[in-house]
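Recap from last week: sequence in, structure out.
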Amino acid sequence: KQATAISWLPLTVILANNQTFDIREFAGGFYISGNDFAETTDLCASVILLKKPGDRMTYFFSRYWIPESKLDSSPDDVDYRQWERDGYLTIVPGNAVDTSAVADWHYYLLQEYDLKPVRSGYDNRYAKDYVKRYEDIFGEKIAVNIPQDFKVLSNPMKTLEADFRSGLVSYRNNPVDLWCYRNAGVAVDKFGRQMPCKMEAKKRIDGAAAAIIAYAALEWHKSEFSALVG
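Predicted structure tokens:
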């Protein structure tokens, strides 16, 4: 049972991780991803996690999707259309995001940069179309369900926080990532285990959730991933 919820990352810590990078630096390499799929009211987020040999930094490269019907009614004081113009987000016609679009984005990364997934962690809710399309592209066993509970998410969330506090995360100063990290709270159960939660009902945290899912997939498959990174 959830005992309490508190703010997760201080803004100063998020802003201190201000290194940036060019995705082309990782061309031909491997990644682990985290994917948080949305109800119609939320963002849909995909975060790929990249590493360099002998480098402790974690490099995040993200993409977001939101239904066009939600823009005018959105309670959030953000400019989704500007984020789309800047290349961080895709506005999807209609009332819902077809999650197969996320798999298509991963296929684009393969075609454009020869970036290959080692594992792709996902939140099982609303993931059916994504998983089907992902397996069509990359085969079975690459996409892995990461249960959204305290037992699974606690250690990855704590590890990601520690890396943030040590200045070891680069999210390319992606403003959507920043917004999601700012909005994220941490729920703590009676055993001291953690998982992400919203501090305010109308504030979206999907990018933060996707990053934690990526860290969970990394935790499960670290030796395999490290061997491929070199």
